[in-house]
Amino acid sequence: MTLRQFMNEAISPWMRKDGPDSDIVLSSRIRLARNFANIPYPIAADPKDLEEIRSFFQEKYEGQTYGVYKDLAFVSIRDLSAIEKRVLVEKHLISPLLAKQSEVAAVLISENEQVSLMINEEDHIRLQLYFPGFQITEALQQAFEFDDWLEEKINYAFDEKRGYLTSCPTNVGTGMRASVMMHLPALVLTKQINRMIPAINQLGLVVRGIYGEGSEAQGNIFQISNQITLGKSEEDIVADLQSVVKQLIEQERYARQRIMEQSKDQLEDRIFRSYGVLAYARILESKEAATCLSNVRLGIDVGLLKNVSRNILNELMILTQPGFLQHYAKKTLAASERDQLRASLIRQRLQLEE
After folding, report:
1. What are the structural domain ranges in the chain?
2. Binding site for ATP: residue ranges?
3. Which parts of 191-233 fold into alpha helices (H)?
């Protein structure tokens, strides 16, 4: 398989589209946690009950279409190899936890991979819906509509006072996590991000890495999401998140402008050194690759690097993850082998640009 073919198959179709403020906001996501009424949550349920839920989704929704979300594919986690599970995690189609729930877990994925419905994760249902760029209100509306479609056949666990009931108390209420993935290299370079994160936390939001809770913010990519799910409506939660994200976008753009005015030579040196590493290195660890890709993406966005696609960061941040590298190689690779293949794939990808 050529790199071009692999990229075309590996990158989710929605990721190839630009959205509002896509120079800073990579994606917007709404995740809804739901459970069946009168069935214990996965943490306490009998495996037989969870198998019935799994079978229910396969019978009712496999191959179905709702709106633009066509041909829902039903995937049993127990039927996947370790590498295939890792690839789905790296594409954000399933969580690391679902990958471990092998026997009774499954996922429904739309053809454009914009919707994924995790089955028997921490809750019976975890609906995820993605949009490119800063489109969190659009994502919320689409998630509501998809959720209503599901509820036509499912009796949700719901309490008039508490809202949607979930396995973890921190999700009770709306059962919603709204999150925005942002590329904030200038705020990192100027060290402003260090004072901003505590302030954001005080507003009931949380800042995490690219793979959510417990993950590192590699490549200057941060995920901003709500912590509070009880006592506020979904619209209010999203409005709070929007307000903070807009301020971060403004601050990031201002920081980029100031760096260009005050330290353009140093920034240009950093960007072209990073491009040189990506273009010629024979061994690249994931952290170094993420840093260099972030610098190159910044160079593209501020106009210092020409004739290189902005989508290069989105593509290569995924394609150079361990699961994808092993999927491309069609075998399990040692860390040193992954580092060599990562460097090779990046060199080839840059050559495609040229």
Report:
1. 263-352
2. 27-31, 92, 126, 177-181, 208-213
3. 193-202
CA dist 72 and 158 (Å) reads 26
Q: Residues annotated as binding site?
A: 27-31, 92, 126, 177-181, 208-213
Q: How far apart are CA 163 and CA 157, in angstroms?
A: 9
Q: Are 232 and 205 in contact (CB under 8 A)?
A: no
Which residues in 219-231 are b (16+ Cβ under 10 Å) and which e? bbbbbbbbebbee
Match 């990562």 to its residue by tokens: 342
Span 94-130, pLDDT tens digits = 999 999 887 899 999 999 999 999 999 999 999 999 9
% helix, strand, coil for the chain, step of 5:
50, 15, 30
When pLDDT is averaged across residues 39-45 and rounded to a whole number, the result is 90
Residue keyed to tokens 């969190």: 136
CA–CA separation, 274 vs 293, rounded Å? Answer: 7
Rounded to 5°, the CA angle 63-327-298 comes to: 95
Q: Please state the pTM of the whole predicted model.
A: 0.91
Q: Residue range 51-73: average pLDDT?
A: 94
Q: Give the model's pLDDT for residue 103.
A: 85
